[in-house]
Amino acid sequence: MKRRILITGVDTYWGGRLAQELEKDAENEAIIAVSPEHPSCALLRSEYVRVGTQHALLRRIVHAARIDTVVDTRLIVDSTTAPRRVVHEMNVLGTMNVLAACGGPDSPVTKVVFKSSAHYYGCERDDPGFFTEEMHRPYPPRAPIEADIVEAEDAVQEFAARNAKVTVTTLRFCDGLGPDLKTAHTALLSLPAVPGILGFDPRYQFIHEDDIVGALHHVVVNDAPGIHNVAPDGVLSLSEIAGLLGKPFAPLLPPWGTGLATGLTNRIGLHIPAEVRQQLRYGRGLDNRRIKRSGYRFDLTTREAVQAFAAALRLKPFRESANAPYRYEREVEEFLRWSPSVHREEPHE
């Protein structure tokens, strides 16, 4: 089946990686990549349009290109990456605008994929061992980023209820690990010692960056309506993770006044946002049976993802010296895309 796909957030790591993966499939006859900033990685077949989340502009693109599948990868799930106002506008207002561009009786869109986060559930002392998709968070959001995610997901579910003919998929990812990821957790695990809160040894699931792209690709090419937790098999305590990384576990943050203590660490460049402070206390587990029933198979378990991250940390100095960061240059990209002098490989059948 031929697909015509629009990906939002191609300036993010996930949007760019997913576009690259979709380019390999000849069944994807059109891939439109949009974002307010330039793409994060080189794209061969995808057509890039520099646009934000203005619903009128997105709607024009959707209708003009007869888009049938929209993948929204923009959601900010790490509050250290942007100012609070920007995060809220991107997560809540941006999501509503993307959905508005997809809806209506004359819309060509038949599938919407929304990349969300396990921060939807929060972290509390009396949480279940594993959250299932039917469970709602037991307490009001503690952190602003959690409130944003709940509000954005509510908008997605309202869109699904109003547009019964559209297959709507929400993926709630656990924390990611990988050599190219930069998050609050990868920063903490890259320290000489893994910090923790005194008296707590929380449970963690970590998904490798390739499995995040793999799960997104899976629900684009297969119908998997509804909400799906995306977390690999296996749960590790933070002390076990430190051991796999070959580092000491250092639970030095005080159990009371943790926010004040992390405020002091911010001054030395170590940012521990509110949503991560809760995880450092209580951890979290996701039930992954629904996404596996849809046919997706994880490449790596939590343990294997941590081991792969440990190997990447050891090789980090060599990778940084060998690889120049990608930089989008419009003239070069247009030459590579359109010049008859450029040899192009046929996409995989």
UniProtKB/TrEMBL annotation:
**Signal peptide (from-to):** none
- Pfam families linked to this entry: Epimerase
Q: Which InterPro entries match?
A: Epimerase_deHydtase (IPR001509), Lipid_A_modif_metabolic_enz (IPR050177), NAD(P)-bd_dom_sf (IPR036291)
The NAD-dependent epimerase/dehydratase domain covers which part of the protein?
Answer: 5-230
Protein name (record) = NAD-dependent epimerase/dehydratase family protein
Species of the source: Solirubrobacter ginsenosidimutans
